[in-house]
Amino acid sequence: MKRLLLFLLLMVYSLTAQEKQDYSPKFTGYVRAWYQADFSTAQGQYLVKQARLNIAGAVNEYASYKFQVDFTRLGKLITTTTTVNNTQVVSSASATFSDVLLDAAGIITPFQNFDITAGQFKVPFSTDNLRADQVTDFVNRPLHTNMSPSIRDIGVMLTYKLKGSVGAEFNLGSFNGAGFNKTENDKTADLCLRGNVTPIKYLNVAANYYNGKAAGVNYNIFDFGTDYKIGSLFLDGEYVVRSASSTLLLPEINGVSYFAFAVYDININDSFIKNIIPAIRYENFDPNTSIDKDEIGRTTIGVTFQFAKLTFAHFRINYEKFDYKDGKTTNPDKLIFEIQTRF
């Protein structure tokens, strides 16, 4: 009898332990270090592009949170100096915390597959914008970010995920429209809609819409994108069109941008290098379709080496070739070397 009771107690304890979830915060982060060669001046420089720390966790099954900072933004320091022995030295330095703050959001999950997110976070617009910087395939994001709303903003978002043979995710968000770390500047809320459907495995099709107002100008932005993975080959492309109108803008200003890229993952066995990933991207940005020869083209060719002995680390080389239709060289061609480590 005692053995039976002991067995039942052990079973209850085991089941309880299995059902208990881990709600402790999870710390992750990454550092991206660059060497950038500018071919217009034949000069180069070293950069710490990003140094980010992420904290995410849950209070219970209904409430979670996320928090992210980028310490490279501390470069916006306000300093004061004083004279010591006829030499100017820094006596104090300060930085507003909002300068480094990227994400600060609370998430409520009232029922399965439905989330309510409030705070500061990424606007649900464009598949490429929503990819984290540490998992993008190129050192720089495409030019179509110039057509998109701010990547991050302050607001609230509803998310519903549909799981099954056909997967889907739908987002509805309302934001200040002023961008991250900024308060509302026109007393109107911007609207964002996004739908992403996976009709078959490895194929995603997304449609995005954004409506906003800033400085008396009304913006309507549409974005369509698709990506598909075939074995080791990954193909991706997006098209975005933006219209801006107001009583002062005659006629309406329309801009168009698109990009397409391909990456191929070559697995290397029994080597210090785990993967070699060549990549190529072409993009075109036209800020105003009514003006001739204002388009900007850019072709990026690169290769990434992922290390087998260093988890979440890679070395990347990208060459960016610009094509300005007006003949100017506002942004010269560049060769960029990147080392990234994550934890």
Fold and architecture overview:
This protein is mainly beta. It has a single domain, classed as Beta Barrel (Porin). The protein contains two helices and 19 strands. The strands form two sheets. Strands 1-2-3-6-7-8-9-10-11-12-13-14-16-17-18-19 form a 16-stranded antiparallel barrel. A hairpin with a 4-residue loop joins strand 1 and strand 2. The protein is globular and about 50 Å long. The mean pLDDT is 86.
- Seen as an oligomer or otherwise, the chain set is single chain
Mean pLDDT: 86
Strand order of the largest sheet: 1-2-3-6-7-8-9-10-11-12-13-14-16-17-18-19
Q: Under CATH, the topology is which?
A: Porin
| CATH class descriptor | Mainly Beta
Distance separating the two termini = 51 Å
Taking the sheet with the most strands, its summary is:
16 strands, antiparallel, barrel
Based on the coordinates given, report the CATH architecture: Beta Barrel
* β-strand number: 19
Q: What name goes with the CATH superfamily?
A: Porin
N-to-C SSE series?
A: HEEEEEEEHEEEEEEEEEEEE
Low-confidence stretches: none
- Helix tally equals 2
Which outline best applies?
A: globular
How many separate domains?
1
Tell me the fraction of residues in β-strands, as a range. over 45%
Give the class from helix and strand content and strand pairing.
mainly beta
Helix content: under 10%
